[in-house]
Amino acid sequence: NQFVKTANIIVELKGGRDVRIRIYGGRDSTQQTLESLKRLASSIKKSPGKPTTTPLNWLVRQLSHRTAFPINVLVDALRLMGYRAGLFKGSLVTNASETAVIGTAEKIAAVYRDLRNSNVSPQAKRIISLYVAATGVTTKEAIKKLADEKLVNVVEGRVTAGMDYENAFKKLSETLQKGG
How far is CA 4 from the centre of its chain? Predict the structure, then answer.
């Protein structure tokens, strides 16, 4: 693991707000430093409620659970939690804080890790992940609650979606608004 050897920061204030930065060191360390500086600049520029852009490759590296999950589930979970969220050119654009995004992604990754060897359909995994991300309950509790709401079906140990994903998302949103 190499460290950045030197950083030369030149601030130009002539007619603008340009900041030029030169970083010398190994390729990986300079790239990591550059990404950190971009995130810092983004957080400084961010005003409350204003969307920020987070590169997906950076987000994935922040997760302690290295379990793959569909990134659209993260977008839907953030929307379910009341944030604006979308994908644009390999980045997540949202008004959620970085902490909220990482926490939500961690919960989703944990669900996919818990269910990786289970007899659960892909759509059911998505629905369960949304519920866990929005409520913070365990995967097992989520399956029970979602089965009670008929959002998933549990038959002989197999868990499947109780309806198509769009309708399940709407019903889940209504259920959560009621305090379920």
Answer: 29
Cβ atoms within 10 Å of 61's Cβ, excluding its own: 11
**DSSP-assigned states of every residue in the chain:** ---EEEEEEEE--SSS--EEEEEEE-HHHHHHHHHHHHHHHHHHH--TT--EEEEHHHHHHH-SS-----HHHHHHHHHHTT--EEEETTEEEESS-HHHHHHHHHHHHHHHHHTTTS-B-HHHHHHHHHHHHHH---HHHHHHHHHHTTSEEEETTEEEESS-HHHHHHHHHHHHHTT-
147/166 Cα distance (integer angstroms): 17
- Beta carbons of 132 and 106 less than 8 angstroms apart: no
CA distance 27 to 29: 6
Stated pTM of the model: 0.72
Whether the CA torsion 120, 124, 126, 129 is positive or negative: it is negative
Q: What is the pLDDT of residues 93-127, one digit of tens each?
A: 999 988 899 999 999 999 999 999 999 999 999 99
CB 65 within 8 A of CB 105: no
